[in-house]
Records
---
Amino acid sequence: MAIFPFVVVVWILAVGLYGIVTSTHLVHLIICLIVVQSSTYVLLLGVGYVTGAVAPYFFDVPNHTPAVDPVVQALTLTDVVVEAAVTALLLALAVQAHKRFGTLDPHELASLKG
Amino acid sequence: MRPAQRRWLFLIGATVLAAFFLWGLSGLPGFGNYPGPYGPAILAMVVAQTHATGAVSAVNFDYRGFDTVGEEFILFTAAAGVSVVLRHLRGERDRAAVDEAADRDVPPTSEAVRMVALVLAGPVVLVGWWLASHAQASPSGGFQGGVVLATAFVLLYLAGEFLVFKRVSPVDLLDVVEAVGAAGFVATGLTAVLLGMPYLKDFLPLGQNPGAVSSSGTIALISFFVGLEVAGAFVLIVGELLEQTLLVRQRGT
């Protein structure tokens, strides 16, 4: 069972990529990208997990209680912030694409340029 | 390329990717056996050194503070980027948009949604500030608090009060809030330099009780500035995107 959380990571990554490849709508595609990025949260938190440890907060538990790794948790927070920024920019671009070409289907957008 | 071909190509690529991924993962120390060294090193000294009981906030706003400056500016740049991408282009108004459903009225906001949104707006502001000001003690911080604060503005919009939403979040004010948030973080770091310490070194008194709001020096200050920046950025982004839908609807009628 030691590898199970990492199999979940691969699964989330794979379904997200499948969604991106088969997407027919830009907003759907952006959400699939969020799913892909979610796999990195699970990976980071999974790497830093310590069996039987508490969350790295010593407000109501004694100092030096065994805790999970705070560094990967901080990295996950960075990850979430970057995702929010990327999503906002991509959604703005999707709005402009729809205004300009009247469609949000990536296939139609590709054929418009060709 | 037809969708079926595309799918087969993806399946081949994904199989290879998954195989390499699993191969790489099998070399990891295994779930629950994190070997360190950084995490255990920080956990051993975080409370004594920073007087913060929240190790994640201590990492974000102290040990990794310089990275977090960059992180904050990613969001700052994204908000600016959204404004630039969605700016009103010249000639945009000239093309007449066709209302595809002219015979259909826009349904009015339901009273239930209005009431829940308006009742929640106040408490949400409170929770946002609570989160942004307790980074040093509990699982919270400026990023989380800022997003929750921005939610209060979205609730106003949900309540059907777009004009109120625009009035309480004028773009000029948001720009100032965002700029103060971003500049405050940088200025906190520079103050340490002026005092002859390394950039972002904690120069404020750490307080007597670890975990108190007044403890841990600059962590609380930086978290406050980050909260301002994040709230400003998110309300700005949401406002820009909402303005787009409003413009389209006005042109349709």
Note: Chain A touches chain B through 53 residues (CB under 8 Å).
---
Amino acid sequence: MVEEKKINKLAQKCPFEGFRGLLTTQNLSIGYSKKGKTNTVQSTLNLKLSAGELVCLIGPNGSGKSTLLRTLTGLQKPLAGKTLIDGKEILKLKQREKALLIALVLTERVDMENATVYNLVSLGRHPHSNWWGNISTIEDKIIRQAIEMVHLGHKMFHPINELSDGEKQRAMIAKALAQDTPIIMLDEPTAHLDLPNRVEIMLLLHKLAHETKKAIILSTHELDLALQAADRIWLMSNENNGIECGVPEDLVFNGSFNHVFESKSYFFNAANGNFSMNYPMNRKVWVSGDKTRMYWTLRALARAGFMVVEDAEIQISVTETGWEIKENCFKTIEELLDKLGKGLI
Amino acid sequence: MKSRSFILFLTLSLLTVVLFFADLAWGSIHISLREMLSAFFGKGSEGVNSEILLNFRLPKAITAILAGASLSVAGLMMQTLFRNSLADPYILGASSGASLGVALVMMAASVLPVAFVNSGWALIVAAIIGASVVLALVVGVSFRVQNAVSLLIVGLMFGTIAGSIVSVLQNFSNPDAIKLFVMWTFGSLSAVTWTYMQVLLPVVLLGLGMAFFLQKRLDGLLLGENYARGLGISILQTRFFIVISTGLLAGGITAFTGPIAFVGVAIPHIARGIFRSSSHKILLPATVLCGASLILICDIISQVPTYTLPINTISALFGAPIIIWIILKKK
């Protein structure tokens, strides 16, 4: 009870009490200005970030994802317009005031000799602690809580140099949680991770946004994961066309994805939320039969350059045990493709 | 974990005290502990031994502790600032900058007021300015050069430039000044008299105080500058303070003892190895104690031969292998 009261007291000390994590931009223009030359990446952006939602920032390389994040966090100056947090302009805030509002997870590698997960996460308390940086019992509780939230409790006192890449990323997220800010920004948190870790990080961030009512924004290339996990997507396009914001499904329906990622070699497949390749297809087959095996058969045929057309000369029927073309039976797709490729049928 | 650090600190402190007295006792004339005590407490203080003890060995031993502490703490700050385990004030050119400052004072001494030069203030101020300027230049370059090894080479180059200017100066100076300067470059702890100590001690204490004041920011810098900014640390201000503090420590010591190499690189690694910590709250006092003990050992060893060896030689003998070990360990 006493400790809870203390924690509440701590919360009252926060200069932005009751603040819902609302970040807005007003006619923001982002880009670089070097030696009098300005290179505008995106202009007149009017964005809004609300508490308790996970926003995924998506766009092709060069569309300015990192530039936008750097500008929103005040690491970089905008070319025009402003970013407001709780009605205050970010550039006018002091470094420490900013650190109480936004926590960062960056792509830089962190290599701290001897430091444990606990040591790393305790750095998140930096903007809250006094100059000596002592860890009180309350601080200790917050740090441990943050580590538990990212499921690293069993590795609390492990050296960070011995963690896997996925665990390291989770430790960095714990550091951001310990910073206790209404907003967390992550720059490509799933880069360099394998699929299970990518999924776990996304799920974790989704859960954290909903449970802690923080606003979490991240940039990513993982389109399918973002479509599943994000409450809202900010879709950036290459040609300074602004940013489309919306619920993922709405953006799928209105064709924004296809527009942004327009290419001859692939297309955005609205049926499954993936990119599908546009293979050069010059031969025709017709396939019929078992539904589940059909999907994979079609994939293999497309890759081999076969277009599926009704009443084609070659008719493949998919059975439960294999594939049949007239009297010929094939046990594997490899055999099937081999025969088709040699033009023997 | 905390008790482990506590025991280590206690052991190291005791070791430092023991080494301090050993350093006082050792030398061409052996001084017993009883003589030491009587000299300290004013009994029979007219003897030659007590004269040697009080006016020669005591300031020398104190200088050894100050030198070890200063160079090690300066090395630790450089390694954290540049996130480079091979950085230290000597390699980054701070010592060369200090040499340039000292050379300017020694060879242009005729121009300066005598009282200013004799008190040692001229020497130390010139050395601190020289060290700080070179460090500031290297930090300035570090904005553009991200590669750690390139940065070290830039430091070496600045050091070389400072060295060349010193050579040019020597060409135009009188032989007495040159001899004085060459003697200085050999490095000696015994150059610090009580008069000089009045100058050196406050400078070193100020530098160490600044370093301890920066400890929380130094922890944040371990994550890299962008993360440190995200934690609310003002990078420009922190860099400035680190440069000034390192300039005071490295420049101040170098002004009187001459350049002492390798201590700045080696000690922080030894301290990290012993204390297994990344926190500067622990590493700063740890480097102070390790550095002080090590220079005391170096000084004791340098007394073993009939002719006292330059301290720089001894420190290089064990410091250089440690650097090679660090590079091998990284692979």
Note: Residues 2-330 of chain B form a domain with the ABC transporter involved in vitamin B12 uptake, BtuC fold (CATH 1.10.3470.10).
